[in-house]
Specification:
This protein is mainly α. It contains five helices and no strands.
Length: 122
């Protein structure tokens, strides 16, 4: 059961990325682009309809609204275009992730903020 849930979550994550890619494609109708951006933005946004810290209900909107939004937009996009964007999103998921690079970037941001605070304080 847990394996199926993980697979379902990966599919939703891939489809949200595919919707973002589709929203930038000129071959996709405008109404589908707008809805795709709204769904992808909601899925990737840290701000939720119901905050995640509320037990059970906090994740309920993510489990229900995001898949329903993805399903609605997928039906609006031509199947051949959606298949193309799903392939691109799947390829992006398989790329290696560098945690060292992420740490270096985080350190640069922290150092920049510290420098600005120090210059303002002085």
């Amino acid at each position: 059961m847990a394996g199926r849930l993980r697979q379902w979550a990966r599919v939703i994550k891939r489809d949200v990325h595919a919707l973002y890619l589709a929203s930038r494609d000129p071959r996709v109708p405008l109404y589908a682009k707008v809805l795709a951006l709204l769904v992808a933005g909601y899925a990737l946004s840290p701000i939720d309809l119901i905050p995640d810290f509320i037990p059970v209900l906090g994740y309920l909107d993510d489990v229900i609204l995001v898949p329903l939004g993805v399903l609605a937009v997928v039906k609006l996009i031509p199947p051949e275009l959606m298949a193309e964007h799903r392939e691109l999103a799947a390829a992006a998921q398989e790329r290696p992730v560098s945690r060292v690079a992420a740490a270096v970037i985080a350190c640069l941001w922290i150092a920049s903020v510290a420098l600005v605070v120090w210059l303002v304080w002085r």
